[in-house]
Amino acid sequence: MLAPVEIELANEGATRRLGRVLCEVLRPGDLLMLEGDLGAGKTFLVRAMARALGVPEEVPVTSPTFALLHDYPDARPPLVHADLYRLGDPDELFELGLMERIGGAAIVAVEWGERFEEVLGAPALRLRLALVGEAARRARVEGAPLRIAALATLWGQ
Known about the structure:
The chain is α/β, with parallel strands linked by helices. It has helices at 12-25, 42-52, 91-95, 117-120, 145-155, and strands at residues 5-9, 31-35, 69-72, 79-83, 107-111, 125-131, 137-143.
């Protein structure tokens, strides 16, 4: 197991860059588990990923807190963004159709999924965002050794 990668994100531009780098590292079928407090930047990061995957600016990329799941089929590869904050029962993951997407043709980014990891399975990457200033964040990324090695190389660590 490779050591986690720690990334300082001084501003929104750095967070957008991380989104682009993640899109180079992740593959269709991969699960990206996003963790962090409310307002840490999880949805902002997914928006950066969506743009990097070709989702046009006129397509809103917002938090799926109430819809639970947003699908971006025109992204290349497709992107699924789920927010499990409001879910209480693991069976809801199946009802939502999320489980059939993991391991499929899309990259699946899940916010607040740590409570359901036993059902979701091990993520390709687990990314924890923490606020360290008004616009600054710290990202801690761990996961599959090949994905971590690629991330470290592309980020320049």
